[in-house]
Amino acid sequence: MRANPGSCRLRRKTTARTLSRRGRTRGRRDSAASSESVEGQVVSGTCAMCSEPVVKRSRRARRALHDAGTPYASWRTGKRFASRESAEGAGKSSAELVGGNAMRTVSVGRCALIISIAAALLAGCGGSAPATGSRTVPQARRATSSENKYVFVTNDTSDYAGGPAEVDYWPAGTTGNVAPTGVISGSSTGLAMPLEGIVVDSTGEVYVADQYNSVILGFAPNSNGDVAPNVSITGPETGLTNPTGLALDGAGDLYVANSEWPTTCHCKASIEEFAAGANGNVAPLRTISGRRADLIQPQGIAVAGNGEIYVADVGKTPVRGLHNLPKIEVFSRSASGNVFPIRTIIGPRTRLRDIPEGLAVSRYGAYTGMWNKALLERFSLKANGDSLPRAAIEGGDTDLVPAVDGVTTAPDGSVYAVDRGAGSGQLPEILQFSGLDRGNAKPVTNITGSSTRLFIPLFVFVGEQSS
After folding, report:
1. For a tag site, which of 236, 344, 364, 383 has the least CB within 10 Å?
2. Handedness of CA 191, 192, 193, 194 (dihedral sign)
3. Do both 256 and 307 map to the same domain?
């Protein structure tokens, strides 16, 4: 069959056009290959304003800078400074925070890089995407002491069930063998071992979970000494059974993780939400429970900025001879009843077999500590299935020992972990790390010693008290 002459001409034109494109692409590649490099990155040209080399970074390189939280780094020129002082010492314009925390400006040479940091990301993991042309970079800061920020911990002062327990707190930034600023303890408090989760709301009200008595107790702001609680959530309408972890959402609603231990079915373990200001024998606003929810022994619980509910589940039911794998489950913000989680972090690569206890969420990810290992892990907020942690804090310099229990995050992004020191010959401690620490990182602060009153610390929270 004869070919259509018109189609042949069209084919020849298309072929010529394709070859021309390939030639231009080859030319660009040759030009890039002959370019210089700055800090291992390809230089794609020079800045028209200051004649400094312009770095073309790969997506992997940008992700590495993002995960490392590199401070004072120019994504455009590839130059970096470890601190404000080193930038000024190099004769550069000093980096400054505009409006406290809304925008960070980094000047390198005569070009200024403005990095917008959305306020929603500072408050949590939700929020809108940055504007076009801006780049959001996590800026982990070492926590400093504030007049009204305090580190609260539930502390069992006896090693037998039903024995005395207390709540201790120190100003944020405290480190070393320091006596607590406040101690809520005594017969009037109603506190008994094991005292589990603790949270502090925006008014300074301190809530704690009394596991064996199935009650949530609340203490007025600035409570100290042998004081009676002003809130007691208990009774058959509450549905509380062995409450462990506590969490608050942005509206002040209280979330409770109920463990089914030592029962043998899924009928007891649950997540319950109580309205802000709830008191007495009141029903929860909603309950997540049932076979689909697959809750066995939930411990730590946290609510992300977008309303998603994270819970660390030990996952064991030894009474039936089963060994359900430990996991972290994530439920949607509207979840209620017998529903499936939207994501489940589970599997050997997660290293959660070492039993996750505490759980906390910040803009940097979801943190959990391991009971059977001196390990603190951080997962991506979108992690699912058998996912590797984004970072793991472990090693001799961390001061962590097996029996890491409660975990929480502070408004500045730092993470706190409670270490019981059980069976290791080491004293209990409350350790603070930068939110982006990984590997064998040294703690920023470490509250430990005989003066601290720490005996069996369980859960920790960073909250405010009125000055």
Report:
1. 236
2. negative
3. yes
The answer to whether residues 119 and 156 belong to one domain is no
pLDDT at 104 over 70: no
Q: Which of 123, 158, 173 is the last residue of a domain?
A: 123
State the SS3 of 373-396. CCCEEEECCCCCECCCCCEEECCH
Same domain, 196 and 84: no
pLDDT band at 420 (very low <50, low <70, confident <90, very high): confident
The percent of residues in the chain predicted with pLDDT above 90, rounded, is 55
Do 225 and 108 share a structural domain? no
pLDDT in tens, 372-409: 889 999 999 999 999 999 999 999 999 998 889 999 99
* Domain count of the fold of the chain: 2
Domain span at residue 49 reads 38-123
CA distance 340 to 139: 35
33 in a domain, yes or no? no
- Statement to judge: residues 107 and 180 lie in one domain: no
Output the pTM of the full model: 0.69
- Do the domain assignments include residue 347? yes
On whether residue 190 sits in a domain, the answer given is yes
Q: Are residues 322 and 421 in the same domain?
A: yes
Residue 26 lies in a domain: no
